[in-house]
Design a protein that fits this description.
The complex is a heterodimer.
Chain A: H1 2-18, H2 24-55, H3 73-80, H4 82-116, H5 121-129, H6 136-147, H7 152-159, H8 174-198, H9 203-210, H10 215-243, H11 247-252, H12 260-269, H13 274-298, H14 301-307
Chain B: H1 3-25, H2 44-47, E1 57-63, H3 74-79, E2 83-89, H4 93-101, E3 108-109, H5 116-121, E4 125-126, H6 141-146, E5 148-149, E6 152-153, E7 156-168, E8 191-192, H7 197-208, H8 217-230, H9 241-249, E9 255-259, H10 260-268, E10 273-275, E11 283-292, H11 298-308, H12 311-321, E12 324-325, H13 328-333, H14 352-358, H15 364-369, E13 371-372, H16 378-393
Parallel strand pairs in B: 1-2, 1-3, 8-9, 11-13
Antiparallel strand pairs in B: 3-11, 4-11, 5-6, 7-9, 7-10, 7-11, 7-12
Helix pairs in contact in B: 7-16, 8-16, 9-10
Classes of the chains: A mainly alpha, B alpha/beta.
Chain lengths: ~300, ~400
Amino acid sequence: MTASVDQASRTKGAAPERRGGSDPRRGSFWFLLGPPAIVLGLFLIVPVLLMIAVSFRADLSGELLAPFTPTLKQFQQAFAGAGYWRVLGISALTAFGVAAIATVTAYPIAYFLAFRAGKRAALYLILLLVPFWTSYLLRVMAWKLMLGEQGVVNSVLIGTGLIDDPLDALLYNRSAVVVTLIYVWIPFAALPILAGLGRIDVRLHDAAADLYGSPLQQFLRVTLPLSLPGVVAAFFMVFIPTVGEYVTPLLVGGTGGTMYGNLIQDFFTRAANWPLGSALSIIMLTVTLGLVIVALRIVDPRRLLERG
Amino acid sequence: MHPRRSLSTLQSTMVLSVVVILAACGPGGATGPTAGAATQLPTQAAATEIPPDQVTGSLHVLDWTGYDAEWAWQDFKNTYKNVTVTFDFGDSDADQYGKMKGGSQADIFHPYTGWLQFYVDEGLVAEIDTTKLKNWDKVPDSFKAIGQINGKQYFVPWDWGFTSILYRTDKITTPVDSWGILFDAKYKGHLSMWDDGPAAVTVSSYVHSYDETNITADQLASIKAEWTAQAPLNKAYWVAETDLDQLMASGEVWAAYAWQGAYATLNGGGTPVAYANPKEGRNSWVGVYGIRKDSSNYDLALRFLDSKLGTLTGQNLVTNYFYGVANGDVMSGIADPAQAAAYTNTTTGATPELLKQTFSVDDPSILQKTNFTPNLTAQQRDDWTAMWTEVKASQ
């Protein structure tokens, strides 16, 4: 089945090529792709290449852009540190949990916006995005106010007489990091799911109803499978950046909430050891990429689409 | 029902929103270089002829948060009214060094003892022409020496102060007399160490009488073990001094590694705190200013540094942050009853009496026992910071 889809798309793609170079669509293709390609090249590809180069330096001394003798010293040190691997594992697990919960929580929001909000959908969407109008830092700081010893949660619990002394285990640990990250990502996760739901032809619902499908069956057998590509996209949109997250653990994580991103940040801003920081970054990049590839093998979004 | 239509509006709104989000999420305000803007600054010979208030141009200063406040450069502000000064910030010595190394166009930067040698070794700092500094003879020789590397004056010393244990006197009622309190399990969850490797090595060196300039591999291994065991005792590590202020003011942290600026802030805010005199001695650090090697604003930068050593700026530093200043006249003024008003600040609670106590004017033994921060080598910097990252990774 996969093969037939591939073939179909290949034939479709082949049609314009036959017409040769005079295709006006090709011009607009480059016109549209050019600017983002240049921006990505300059601000993503070049920096990543520089980072790879720096990771092979012995230290930071001397001219940064001058040639140097490459060494594997940084990778040896990075591989030798058992703690680094531990924290990478913890970060990946944290990211998995955060991505899963944020995606599941975001689904009903997206569903509501796509099928139930009607004319007000645009307004609700803007409301969903209101948190982004304030700085990320401020939103994380707000959680310090929520979870602190004299924070909102403790005040409410004490005020209602449920506890006598403030709980000090709410803030400055890994669970505070997880809670804050989930909050931060929910609106983000809702967007790709919404896009996925938006592609569903509502007449399919009518068709399912005609065939006596209950609302639950309609959802489980029509809506959910068709929206899975959006769900998978939402999951990875949260998972990938969360593995390298460092601001949230820095602010609410305390001594025990360190994530891999914090180690990398430390080597850049607190140790002035860019080569080792770059080596750790590359390890993280490779591991994250590896995890994503494995995950996409397991849940192939194209297959999901087809099954629907 | 027109779901298709409403969704296409919705989708376009969404695309627009994503664009807005991406724009908003970008790294906040990377401060662009302002170099090369010294429009009017004339050649050295003519410089003396132009009245200060007619000098125009702009200076870009890489500093620590807080020192952008006008009080911290008041003399320059008052004298050079038509010069624009812009600031950006580094929140640690490593951060500042990284920014300068990475090509920051700041004309002036502000490192601390421990981190000076690197700037000279890497050719990032210009030599200071001290003959152009009117306030230079007010700087004691011992301070001048701190800014000298390889026998040349590369830095102008400015602020100095102690590091010690700051503690809440309402929570810890017996006076703290040792750095060892940071390792006391009795205070689990109520301690806070500065998030810094070299600082951890320094504290351990004091507690175990190690030679800080010559830490062996074995000693470093035991220091790592010691701080790994210490980590769970902290409420959190603090990064910027304002973090510490909050943690102590809220009562979450009772004792911490701290600079005396935190003592001043908390004391002024009414929090019951004391600043310990540990039996191992306090630590002391000195902040210096350097001028970037290829700065096109060298002369204007020198004037800025000269003004930094001015009387009003120095008094402001003393009364706002309770830090010392390299201008010796300002420091001796603390004990002069005729100048009492200049050393009083109702906001911070500074009084000549409190300042005398802070700088141990009446008890010279505190200064005699104080350990000054030695310069790090590149090897020590890399080993000690890696040790600290491994401590954090073990939690």
